[in-house]
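Give me structure tokens for this 287-residue protein.
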Amino acid sequence: MTPLKIIECPRDALQGIKKWVPTARKIAYYQSLLEVGFDTLDVGSFVSPKAIPQMKDTAAVIQGLDLSKTTTQLLTIVANLRGAQAACQFPEITYLGFPFSISENFQMRNTHKTISESVTVLQQIVDVAHSHQKQVVVYLSMGFGNPYGDPWSTEIVGEWTATLSKLGIQIISLSDTIGTAQPDAIRFLFSHLIPAYPDIEFGAHFHTHPNHWLEKITAAYDSGCRRFDGAIQGYGGCPMAKDDLIGNMPTEKLLSFCTSKNIPIALNPLHFEAAYNKATDIFSQFV
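Here you go.
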């Protein structure tokens, strides 16, 4: 049985916190996460500090991490060529994550670019990433619908997947940005896209209401998805959701799902417990 690939996303959990989390606290928390054995750690973003002030110390955080005893790889979010060029200066970073929305409204809100302009930006990011032996992960934002009335259908998701494939993207994470994905849509997309694009690794980046996490994971897993993003205790999520209960997929729920299904996971349970406790310390103080 193929183990799940779990991507831990403390960046997504921390980025919306208005109270400043000191760099040293971030480093200590991330260091504990590196000991757990996650496939990838989403550690920060190279975007304007005006847009995401909590991530303005991403460079210092990366420089403060000890990666000598971990196999976990690092991912950072970039929104333009300048951010990609900055991220590529760090040999510690393996993946550049790019938020690509199929909702015109959300793409403008998120990157101040139209979808058409974002395709051009993404091509630039892919070029600079490949020239530095790094890989681009595209988050297909609003992949299960949007609150703006912009067109959405499974066919539209398929069309944009085809476009991303032509750009050479090899990892696409379908993102339930506002936590409204229904199991039928999840099953349809993963069961059709995974066999249609065997060279692309498809992942699930779910934001979820506490009562709906299991149906989302189950629908994706049963449809062939083996890459899942999570954030310990489910903090974070999209501020556009306008619902305090819509947060990230709690990593501990992913782990309990794996246990219930006897799915192998390459994580150290004792180190996960220690990281969970550190998360509690941070979120209880700063949220």
